[in-house]
Amino acid sequence: MTKKPPPQDVGAERALLTTLCAPGAEEAAARLVPGLQREDFMVPAHQVILEALRALLKTGIEISLVSILHELEAHGQANRVGGVAGLADILGAEEVARPEVLVDILQAHRRRREVMRWAHQAYLRAEDTTDDPEGILHDTQAEMARISRDGRRDEGESWEEILVQMAAHQPFRRPGPERGGWWGIPSLDETCPIPAGEFTTLGARPGIGKTALLTQIAIESARRGIKVLVLTLELPKLTMRARLASYLAHISVTALKRGDYQSSHIDAVGLQANVLEMGRTHALPAGIPWAKIEALIRFEQARHGIELVLLDQFDKIGRPPVGRGSSEAYAFGAVSTSILEVSKDLGIGFVLLCQLKGDAQDREPTLSDHADSDRPAKDAGVILHLWRAKNGEVKAKLHKHRDGSYVGKVFSLDFDGRTQHFRDLVQESSLTSQPAQPRLYKPEDMPL
């Protein structure tokens, strides 16, 4: 059986290069060449012509057969196109009026080739019985998502669109919900709601209650109809399940772990079936690469309609490989950028738990206190830090807010570590100004 050639269109490659290299085509070339890749062309001679064309656009030299030939000769590439005769033959195809159509054709073929190449690699990995099938699936999902993202055109627009939008009385926000989740604390929900389409950073030292607040965000968001995905790289799945049950049934995690709960607690959880059906949990191994986490999030969003992701915690994500001279902070920065891209791409809320430095204990943290990288602070739309004041109160400071409101505001919170609940110690809601009574805890009340 004759092997079928990969998807390609050599005629379209020639016609596109001829059109972009024609006299007076500088405007079209300047617009289209930056979005083209060598891999869009299958013929090696066409690839080197593309790179010569790209170099001429950067230097501002007039594009012609002669200038392209000189550029190729300067880099020892003229023989790859067959000299002046070969170059003239390649650029002798018929010009087209809409080169954008040819770009779409070539890039569609390139994406098909990428899918076929990765599918072949996945097939070979699947044949290897020592390779983890879950890892193969996650890697495949991540690669397919990358190919899909690379195929999207990022088009500019005229400023006249401002008037068009205003004339139609359309709101200046992207489609879909603006709120990505709920804190379950009135003062925070009113002043700094968890946004959709970007991520929120929640930072604290261990033992302050980060994961407890994550538990509260998960359940209170689900209670309000948001589909939630909890990803924990620190706690076992049963422990996370116990924390969620503790919040729902108002019983301590310790009692749940002992099995020391009553029918009334079961009934309390059963009456909240509408909340239970809105949430999902994955306990992932520490050090798991971000690519696998991203693939899992995209799978959960496509299969279950996830609208809010809660990730505990940032420093346990596997660092991507870094080149010589790069640092771990750089590697974590790449992960932070990817989290922002996923939040925007899927239009979801995303809360990221981050560890703060050891000397941030018992004092008000700053943005420089992030233990592994300051990028989650730079990339986040909302940043909230927790700490315990010397008088025992839990404080929360809003360090960053996407619209600038209430930045620098400090909130006093009452934390019931026994049942994973936070509430305003001093209610600052527009609905009430009644102070809450603080409670005192014994060490055994804190969750294990």
TrEMBL record:
Residues 429-448 are annotated as: Disordered. Residues 174-429 form the SF4 helicase domain. Pfam families: DnaB (PF00772), DnaB_C (PF03796). The keyword Metal-binding does not apply. It is an enzyme of class 5 (isomerase). It catalyses: ATP + H2O = ADP + phosphate + H(+). Its EC number is 5.6.2.3. GO terms for cellular component: cytosol; primosome complex. Coiled coil: none annotated. It comes from the Bacteria. One of its GO terms (molecular function) is hydrolase activity. PANTHER family: REPLICATIVE DNA HELICASE (PTHR30153:SF2), REPLICATIVE DNA HELICASE DNAB (PTHR30153). This is DNA 5'-3' helicase. It comes from Mesoterricola sediminis. The lineage of its organism: Bacteria, Pseudomonadati, Acidobacteriota, Holophagae, Holophagales.
